[in-house]
Amino acid sequence: MNGTVVAAIDQGTTSTRLMLFDRQGRTLSLAQREHQQHFPQPGWVQHDADEIWRHVGRLVPEALEQAGVDARQVAALGIANQRETTVVWDRTTGRSLGPAITWQDTRTSAIVDGLVARGEAGRIVETTGLHPHTYFAGPRLRWLLDQRPELRERAARGEVLFGTMETWLIWNLTGGVDGGVHVTDVTNASRTMMMDLTTLTWDDTMLDLLDVPRAMLPEIRSNAEVYGTAVGRLAGVPIAGALGDQQAALFGQTCFSPGDAKCTYGTGAFLLVNTGSERPRPGRTVLPTIAYALGDDAPVYAVEGSIAMTGSLVQWLRDSLELIETAPQVETLARSVDDNGGCYIVPAFSGLFAPRWDPGARGTIVGLTSYIRKGHIARAALEATAWQTWEVVEAIRHDLGLTLETLRVDGGMTSNHLLMQYVADALDVPVERPLVSETVCLGAAYAAGLTVGYWADLNTLSHHRHRAAVWRPQMDPAVRAHESSQWNRAVEHALGWVPQRPPAAAPRAERPTRPPESPSVAALPPATSSLGTESDPDPGR
Amino acid sequence: MVEVGGHIQSVERAAAVLRILGSAGKPLRLAEIASALGLAKATTFGIIRTLRDVGFVHQDRETSDYSLGDGLRDLGRASLDPHDLRSHAMNWSDALASRTRLEVLVAMPQLDGARIVHHVFRPDDSAQVLRVDEVLPFHATALGKVVLAFAAGIASPTPGLERYTQRTFTRRTSFDAEMRGVAERGWATEQAEFVPGVGAVAVPLRGFGGLGVGAVAVSGPLERVFRHAGPAMDDVVSATLETAVAISRSLGVRP
């Protein structure tokens, strides 16, 4: 083809994708490769960073060929990535030193518990906006360095480098051992538990707490600036944008104004709301984070609420209960009945995340009578996803006074119309699906394209966004009030089911917006593999 | 002709034909079937032709002998789930809408028409409403025509050809001619026959075994789908055909 394109890499949990977009933000090509998941011990989930980098090398020619362009036509490259996944590598050989430990991995629980036991939780929340948790990259880095003390010495001399996946890819794309650029972006850095969320710089206190040498850390940059120029197959292409995947989806959904919100429905769900230019005060129900920072512009903040089980509950109906043959058929089964028949499922299989934060909660089905058929169970499963979304939105409204006007959705579960309608009904706001469903890649492409002037400004990007579908609320307010109150009652049955928990960590929320009594680790989300950053495997590719 | 509670003779005879074919162990000639049933060849032929047209009987192209058809075997299987189809079609239909700047509809056959199972808005941000579950008439829409022509299990169209616009086919002869064109081309058009000013192109979707399971269509202002007073635009047709191949492949059809 003639003309230029923008490329984007989405380095995800199960696969890496490379996509090309045209000036209208339309998809020109998509190349994808899955990488191996390694589970050496229970709770351990790791990737091979070298394998992922090799995949990128193969995806580049595939995507260029599909679109019929060469590297000279690529105006810029943007990168989005699975957040919190931690890599350490040798600056002189360019090889990773140990596994890439993923965001799902819980091996750092002893480190995190130690921080909490020493009473550091308050300081950590104040500085980073994050409750100490195995979810984040910093404790993982400490674990890697603790395993091999010689690495810490070499890191202090600048011979061993740390990065999350975007850092690893940018360093390699810009030449690796031969002049690779060692940078991260504010959104990824905000998920390390090492960055001050106000100054957007590495915080010495946090580095001391985690015993991490500053010399091994990448430079923190904005989400849209030229980090360096690619060598190899993309020689000459400026690498001009990087964001963590959930922030990339927020950007790809063009959520540029305070109150703009998106929710990605995959195995789990991630709801992010743009909160504007002021840092949200540390909340106990939803986490403050960076939405994006463009070049020298002031950063824009967001709050994030994650829901552990959404698509994975449907997979459980399919694989464990064998109620359905395929995930989409849950809609067929749910439509075989008119309502939930008084049945509610609380999918707290590994505790509840935002806004309840109860790791001792366990799944329940309440309201069972002889009347209940499997269709009611399917319906209750879908409604659980909608009510969990509602709880996060209510918590944000309570904590920040932000009310949503619409919810923009993406991810595999958006093909379920019954669910999308129920989300609109529960939230009482319209739910919109955009035409380009690959919002993560699109967001990275947008950031990179803005940097090099391929797109003029945010307004231009907003014009690219087109609705593919809209679901408008139809539920009677009295029904909504009844159902939400029934949902809350159902959740009470699920809370605190697992005994033997630290006494401070048993919040029995009476309302969805009530935070735990104290931000201790036990009251925080368990890092669990059921919480996915990625949507269901894309059946259309 | 039929008493209340009585039997419908042609259905009984059709069942007998199927039993004979099922127990024969080899394909049968028309004369063999007729003699086994004690019926005139003309009567038997009427029954067997109908069974063949709905896919319950297979006729060998070379020998003209008859055996049980795939449609009968597939009866026992669950048919394609509409939500599975939507899930398979979603990304491809998004791309089609993005490429053509037209509305995209995916439909499955049902007795009274083509039921919409997936809808992607025309990407121009005009006010639009999801049309999922709407049933489109066979004779007045591109999706209806394609589903009628290519989906297994539909014997004949609705009895009356209701008029929706000035351009709806309401005479049986002209509609039959239109359908012969659809069968030859392999895809169907709609030129303001259902909604004034609206045109569409529809292409069949094939599922496991190559069975017609539904259709995908682009729809929009007549002048965005058809050349001035002429045929459908080539790029619109080719984009829709390519999308149908991609969705069919995703459903398990090997090219």
Provide the structure class of chain A: alpha/beta
Compute the separation of the termini of chain A in Å: 22 Å
Lateral strand order in the biggest sheet of chain B: 5-4-3-8-7-6
Oligomer: heterodimer
Average of pLDDT of chain A: 87
CATH top level label of the largest domain in chain B: Alpha Beta
The order of strands across the largest sheet of chain A is: 15-16-14-13-19-20-21
Low-confidence stretches of chain A: 501-541
Distance between the first and last residues' Cα of chain B: 48 Å
What would you call the shape of chain A? Answer: globular
CATH architecture type of the largest domain in chain B: 2-Layer Sandwich
Remind me, CATH topology of the largest domain in chain B?
Beta-Lactamase
The share of residues in helices of chain A is 25-40%
| Total DSSP E strands of chain B | 8
Largest interface: A-B, 27 and 29 residues
Strand content of chain B: 15-25%
Biggest pleated-sheet summary of chain B: 6 strands, antiparallel
Helix content of chain B: 40-55%
Helix count from the secondary structure assignment of chain B: 9
Q: What percentage of the residues of chain A does DSSP assign to strands (E)? A: 15-25%
Largest sheet of chain A: 7 strands, mixed
Written description of the protein model:
The complex is a heterodimer of chains A (541) and B (255). Helices cover 32% and strands 19% of the residues of chain A. Chain A has 16 helices and 21 strands. In chain A, helix 4 crosses helix 5 and helix 12 (374-400) crosses helix 13 (417-427). The radius of gyration of chain A is 22 Å and the shape is globular. Mean pLDDT of chain A is 87; it is low at 501-541. Chain B has 2 domains: 9-75, Arc Repressor Mutant, subunit A, CATH 1.10.10; 82-250, GAF domain (Beta-Lactamase). Helix content of chain B is 42%, strand content 18%. Chain B contains 9 helices and 8 strands. A 6-stranded antiparallel β-sheet of chain B has the order 5-4-3-8-7-6. A two-stranded antiparallel ribbon of chain B has the order 1-2. The mean pLDDT of chain B is 86. Chains A and B meet through helix 11 and strand 21 of A and helix 5 and helix 9 of B.
